[in-house]
Amino acid sequence: MMEEEELEFVEELEAVLQLTPEVQLAIEQVFPSQDPLDRADFNAVEYINTLFPTEQVSTVSGFLHFSGFWLILSIMRLDDNIRTVVRGQTNVGQDGRQVKEITRDIKQLDHAKRHLTTSITTLNHLHMLAGGVDSLEAMTRRRQYGEVANLLQGVMNVLEHFHKYMGIPQIRQLSERVKAAQTELGQQILADFEEAFPSQGSKRPGGPSNVLRDACLVANILDPRIKQEIMKKFIKQHLSEYLVLFQENQDVAWLDKIDRRYAWIKRQLVDYEEKYGRMFPREWYMAERIAVEFCHVTRTELAKIMRTRAKEIEVKLLLFAIQRTTNFEGFLAKRFSGCTLTDGTLKKLESPPTSTNPFLEDEPTPEMEELATEKGDLDQPKKPKAPDNPFHGIVSKCFEPHLYVYIESQDKNLGELIDRFVADFKAQGPPKPNTDEGGAVLPSCADLFVYYKKCMVQCSQLSTGEPMIALTTIFQKYLREYAWKILSGNLPKTTTSSGGLTISSLLKEKEGSEVAKFTLEELCLICSILSTAEYCLATTQQLEEKLKEKVDISLIERINLTGEMDTFSTVISSSIQLLVQDLDAACDPALTAMSKMQWQNVEHVGDQSPYVTSVILHIKQNVPIIRDNLASTRKYFTQFCIKFANSFIPKFITHLFKCKPISMVGAEQVRWIWCRHLPDGFC
């Protein structure tokens, strides 16, 4: 039976491995081989017997039969395993459904546990809330504010957990009881403070109590309006005496006694710290609030009294009041942080009011006094900026409408200063010739800009708004006056001479009997005015930049000193033109004499000519003086040389064409004389 099965298996295997003749032929063509194993009619038994001819064929056949049987058994075992696996997979879906049901049950248990925990927690909160509300009402009646402060916050925190349960009548009732307790607490605390610090009459003897201190802790938890009302009533009561002492009709209310106002509030702040410093919580900043409210009241009262007595305000009095006020604002900045100031109370500065603020100290600094003797330019190295003062202007803002008095005073002072400069110039005369360090800048120029700097710094401390624009207008006015009265007004006047010069007169010039139209002193004066105008031009530009730094950002575009800078540029151009005209006019007679000379009568070429000698004489007289006196402004000396050359050369060529008729010898004489003295390449 086993042998039959084996034979059937072998036949089936051979049938599977039997290839068609076409496939076999294609394989032999692609993979040609002489190996017997690759032949289509390969017989394993014959092949083995060929390899082992000495062994019995039956032995090999038995071995092959045994191997085939073993392979069949292996295949059968694999089939059984496959059937087992396939049958096992049919139960997976059923097992998955069972697991899913178990997971759903677990989730349901988790939800139940969570709901149960929430219910227990909610019941505990409800118990705490009910008990807390009862205790809160009892403590409120007994004014146990210390215990109330701790309990009230806890009750409010617990009540937050019941916002979604407000539809339940019992919960809503508890919430209403809490609100009622808060309202009662607020009214009760306000009544206690009113009793302790009545609006009228003196304070309650004995000072603050622990009850009020604890009441402030409760007010921190209640509606913020309760806290604001407490602070408002206390500050009002604290400043009630001030309003009585410094009424408008009182002598101490005027500006000359403004120091007494600030001395009073300093005493009150000390009194507050001693008596009430521990009653109010630190985060209420009560001392600062008292000071800020005092500033608001003072600003209002000062504005009112200054409107009433505006005609009595003088510059010195106004500046005194402003200085004392800014000193006080500096004192506040040192003591308080300014955290209680709001946008509606005070507009904080975007930049410090000035880089050197003498009013930040309690006592005036010597900086303002040094300005009177300072002679440096405005381009000195910048000093460190003063820290922002959040209280700047909180009181001193009231003086701004009256700063026109200060501006008018500066207008008057600058007018007198310009008149003094004019008188001093006439009395002292033109500056002395300077051949060592260049042309001297007029000392009045430095004095003017030092005064400007003083006014600018002082005004910027008073206001950075419209008064700064008004002061800038005053600056512009007197910059122009200085340019007209001191500089242009003192330039020497040119005069025209009639008649011409002859050759004989030119010969006398060689001996020095005649000089240029401008004297040495006049040439030095022109150079000094030119140097002064250059200094004014540069310093005016720096002044404009400083003004823009100190004025409000919205007003920067209104600061423009271009017109004044153009005025000084005009003075410079006029000075250079005067120097050129003077030297040019001095050379005119020589050129005229050259054109009138009888050149056709010249018989031989010489190395001397009276007109050339005259031109060279004037150049040697004027140019070194101008060069030495413009040593500090070399670019303008260069401009002078260029302008003189541009003026002299065309005039020389014009006169040269007038030398007709001229002989060959005369032409050679002209060329020889001028080329001998003029620079290389000119001829």
TrEMBL record:
GO biological process, one term: retrograde transport, endosome to Golgi
Start and end residues of each Vps53 N-terminal domain: 98-425
GO cellular component: cytosol; GARP complex
Acidic residues: compositionally biased ranges: 360-371
Region entry Disordered, spans: 347-386
Protein name: VPS53 subunit of GARP complex
Basic and acidic residues composition bias: residue spans: 372-386
Pfam families named in the record: Vps53_N
